[in-house]
Amino acid sequence: MKLSPAAIAINGALVAAAAFALFPLVWMVSVSFMQAGEASSFPPPLLPAKPSVENYRELFAQAGMDSYVMNSLAVAAGTTATSVLFNVMAGYAFAKLRFEGRDAIFKTMLGALVIPGQVAMLPLFLMLKEMGLVNTWAGVIVPGMAGVFGIFLVRQYAQSLPDELLEAARIDGAREGRIFVTIVLPLLKPIIVTLAMFAFLGSWNDFMWPLIVLTDSSLYTLPVALASLSREHVQDSELMMAGSVVTVLPVLLLFLALQRYYLQGLTMGSLK
Predict the structure, then answer these.
(1) What is the pTM of this model?
(2) Residue-wise DSSP of 113-142
(3) Distance CA 113, CA 108 (A)
(4) What is the CB neighbour count within 10 angstroms for residue 48?
(5) Which of 92, 73, 116, 76 is nearest to 199 (CA)?
(6) Cα dist. 184→33, 79, 87, 267 in Å?
(7) What percent of the chain clears pLDDT 90, i.e. is strictly above it?
(8) Which residue in 72, 126, 245, 248 is a FRET match for 24, CA 20 to 30 A apart?
(9) What is the average per-residue pLDDT within 41-64?
(10) What angle (nearest 5°) sits at the alpha carbon of residue 244, between those of residues 239 and 245?
(11) Of 47, 59, 72, 191, nearest in space to 137 by CA
(12) Per-residue pLDDT reduced to its tens digit, 74-93
């Protein structure tokens, strides 16, 4: 099949844009295998002269990066589980259940989307302080337990579920809890995976809130620990790049593993 000049130009531009976007990530991985000080030379090399895993060994043997990875996994897993649970239940309720003030409450929640998250950090911190959750993982997880965007995402998807299917289950005597677990949840699988990925990525990459809430260095998540480490090793570009690779790799693998469900959840608007 012969491509037209316009198609060749468009594909070439897309390849160039993809290469431009991926180059920093590729160079980050390359620098992480360089010897100390090698990346600081001019012009900076693209590939390591003698590849070494010494930077990764130092991260886990001396900097204690393994404990920070486990901290981030624990916080991200807790945030993802609670966020999916509450957002899915709330989104389904706003889509299919009838209760007084439903539409007014939902519109009010949508209005909260225009408020920057930084505005709520101070009152949220004071509330958590009164609850005794400052400097705890629970203090990091609680703000992410539910979100307006997640509720909105689930609601829009749940509206495509046929009312006849739910009514048939009610006529057969099924209670709302059983309908939700056995009928609704399987049909919401694509959007649940999408929501879980959003929650996990948001929690894993979050820097500001854990920095504010956590004061004990043993509780630091990976982004906070990496920023703290950079102050001690400001000249060790190779070590910092190795830490960045460790931070990026888990979320990249998660996305590659679940991308089919993620894309399905973003594009599907009705049942097959």
Answers:
(1) 0.80
(2) GGS-GGGGHHHHHHHHHHTT-TTSHHHHHG
(3) 9
(4) 16
(5) 76
(6) 48, 22, 14, 19
(7) 11
(8) 72
(9) 78
(10) 95
(11) 72
(12) 999 999 999 999 999 999 99
Q: Are 91 and 153 in contact (CB under 8 A)?
A: yes
Amino acid at 64: G
Single-letter amino acid code for the residue at 126 = L
Give tens-digit pLDDT for 120-163: 888 889 999 998 889 998 999 998 888 888 899 899 888 888 88
**Which two three-digit tokens encode residue 38?**
């090698």
pLDDT at 271 over 50: no
State both tokens at 255: 């996305």
Structure tokens at 214: 């956590």
Nearest alpha carbon to residue 150 among 116, 187, 188, 122 = 188
Cβ atoms of 155 and 94 closer than 8 Å: yes
